[in-house]
Amino acid sequence: MTELPPSDVVPHLDEVRDRVAAPENPTDARRDGGCLRRNTAYIGQRLLGAATSLVAVIFTSFFLFRIIPGDPVRVMTHGRPVSVEQKEALTREFGLDKPLLEQFGHYLLGVLRLDFGESFQYNRPVLSMVGDRLWPTLLLVGASLIVSAALGLWLGVQGAWRHGSTADRVNTGVALTLWSVPSFWLGLILIVVFGSGLGWFPTSGMKTPGVEGFDAVLDVAHHMVLPLVTLVAVVYAQYLLVMRSSLLDEMGSDYLTTARAKGLRDAEVKRQHAVPNALLPTTTLLFINIGFVLFGAVLVETVFSWPGLGKLFYEGLSVPDLPLVQGLFVIFSSAVILMNLVSDLIYPLIDPRVRP
């Protein structure tokens, strides 16, 4: 038999390298490139939207609180023997004698340096006061967020899975009723009934003076009961209604029919298939509410004299203490904008159906 030359059996080494280096399907590279461009454009749009919202908040926070009627110097000196010269000196000290545009320029430079100035009534830096009041708000509103989400999602799942039942109608009706109730009114009712009336719980403050150690932890928890119940009663309905609606939309899907046909029990179908998909729409709601944690609950903290950021904001509005309310408004709004941005960026990762 005649031997074939080696070139007819083994391709040239350069051809082998070219075949290995070249993609098997050129459309894969184009598809990857297009996906990268779409993702980059999606992230860029969300970042641009968040930045635009933040700029709008910074501008709004300055002019909004100057519309509020009231003179800080007059309010702070009311009932005190203060001369006209002393009032004028306070006006100059607060910078309220300067033209509005000059005040705005000074405020804008301070925001860029993360310096919101000093409070008129407390004579302390705004950021320092925010740091002092941050922990009580995180404790109260953070705990209410966890309880509200857990309770609302669980009741929403139970209601949707047995929609039309007596329990579903009762839970939905109670949730809608509590959601429509003003939080301060509900707080006052709880104070009258369980505080002043029965005397079961404290009605104001965060702790009792002089209590230390582990007893202090129990004392704070005792003071938290009424404001926590007020916040949970008003907020949990959002999670219940959103979860119930999302699960009802999923219950007619083909994949649930397929899961039942495979022999899965009803509880397994609900736990493994229906609920995970129905949870997706609650992601945005959860992140937005996390942003509102810093804002706290102005009315609830005020009613119960809870020493958090919400009560501090109310105290600033009563003067009005312009550096304080401006700084808190920017911080609160920035937290909401940031959490909304995070939810927009995370949602496509957990739900492939909305990927760009």
UniProtKB/TrEMBL annotation:
UniProt record similarity statement: Belongs to the binding-protein-dependent transport system permease family.
GO terms for cellular component: plasma membrane
Compartment(s) where it occurs, according to its Swiss-Prot or TrEMBL record: Cell membrane
Keyword field contains Transferase: no
Pfam families: BPD_transp_1, BPD_transp_1_N
Protein name: ABC transporter permease
Keywords: Cell membrane, Membrane, Transmembrane, Transmembrane helix, Transport
Main location, first listed in the record: membrane
Origin species: Knoellia subterranea KCTC 19937
Residue span, ABC transmembrane type-1 domain: 134-347
